[in-house]
Structure formats: structure tokens, C-alpha cells
Amino acid sequence: MTITAITGSSGFVGKALVTVLRARGHEVRRFVRPSSGSSSDTDTDAIAWDPATGKIDAARCAGIDTVIHLAGENVASGRFTKLRMHNIDNSRGPATQKLCRSLANLPSPPRTLLSASAIGYYGDRGAELLTEQSGSGAGFLADVGRAWEAGTSPLAAAAARIVHLRIGIVLDKHGGALRRMLPAFRLGLGGRLGNGRQYMSFITRTDLLAAICFLLERNDIRGPVNCVSPQPVDNQTFTRSLGKALHRPAILPIPLFALRLLFGRITDEALLASQRVLPAVLQQHGFSFQHHDIDRALRAALA
Question: Could you list the residue range(s) of the whole structural domain that residue 174 is in?
């Protein structure tokens, strides 16, 4: 039986992934932070982990084949203050490096690491088509993305296979950006952000979970993998499709000054940056998306 350990197992993606992996026959262990309320002394599948220091309970890591690292401060959870930006940064690059250093020092380090990253790595690129071969962009989120991926280097040095999951906007009514949008759109108060021309590269949670399972089994894939639908859309198209899916008008644009007032620093990067990203690696290796286009994706996400 494959033993797979997950950080961020209580999150929007992680919780669903635990269920999927167990259904596929994996023995799942969860890295648990001291403040999470769980205890490795009482939960047989839990491994104590302190993200601030990288310390892990090495005894409970015996036999782990793969680690899926999903933990990190939620970018979509609130206003971008200076403190919150610091927390976002610190929870990614530095925390990943400390975790990977501890994993690399185990008597038998895991052979595979799937580590979350994000398409923010590419920065604001307008209508440029972006694949895994495209370079990194500029700005806070791009800097965070580079540090996040570089943080896996201690485990890479231990000869592990590293996959960087460059995840787009994950669509599901139970979490992420879509959950935050739904109240306004259901009231008929939704609309495009700014001029609406910025590209949004999305993936349903169902397709993301399937992609992660696919990558677990493909030992020939390593490096960055764009986890997005093959059909990115601009914000205006997304807005129109969401309104149609909810049978509500979506005609009230949210001006730039209002967005900056509501969300604070780096609003332009977080909400208005344009990233037209393609899943070249997944497609080259034969991965099949269930929800290619935005209309199908939103119907599935809202079902």
C-alpha cells in the first residue's frame, strides 16, 4: 500500500484529496500543526509538524512514499495588509524549505514531492499564452511563487522527484474564490472587475484532484505543471457565464478604485492581473479534463 502524507489536509482542496486518495487505496497521513487542535498522540494518521521551525515527528514519517504539500496562508481570505502579505510570503517559501529540509534528513526520505505553487508565478502578462516553459513575472506574488518553488531544493538534493503544482483559480461552491463571489452574484449584484479584460485561468476542484492523482502515478513527470483548464477566459466572459449559471444578471462592474478600497495592497496583482495559462504538460501526457470550458466548469462547481 502506498503511504502518502499531506500538509494542508484540513483545507478546501486538502480535505477532499484525503477522501479521494483513501478511496484509491492510499494510506494517508496528515501533517498537523500544533495549533490545529489535533494531536499525533491521539490521531493515528497525524504527524506533528511545526511550520515555523520545520520540525516533524520523524518516527511517524517511516514508510512515507510521497508528500503532497498544500499548506499556506489563504490568498483569497481577506484584505491585503502589510502583515497579511508577510504571512503569505512566510507560509510559502520559508515554510516549504524548512519542511523539505526535515524530510530530506529522514532515514528514508520520500521519493516524490508534489508541492503547491500558483500561476501568480507568471505575473501580469496580458493576453500572452503561458506554458510551463514561460519565465516568471514581476511583482509580489511572482516573487512568492519563485521562493515557494525554490523552497523544495533540500528534498530535490536528496534525489526526490519534485512536481510544482502551479494552480489556477479553483472553482467549487464550497470554497476558494467562487464561494466569496456567490452571495453578490445570487443577489444580481455581480459584475466584471475593472475593465474585465484580464484573463482568468481556472480549474474545477474535481479536475484538480484528478490531476494530482494523475501526477502521483506518473513518475516520468517532474518540474512545473500548470493545473488549469485548457480554455482560460477573460473576466468579462467569466462574469457573464456565472450570471447565466445562476440565472441572475451580472451587469454591475466593480470599478478599480472600489476594489483597491476593499482589498488594499496588491489588489492589482491579486484580482486584476491577467494570466492566460495553458496546461501544456498535462495535455502532453494525456490527462483528460472533465470540465474544459467555463460554462461546463461553473455548472459542475455549482452542482
Answer: 3-302
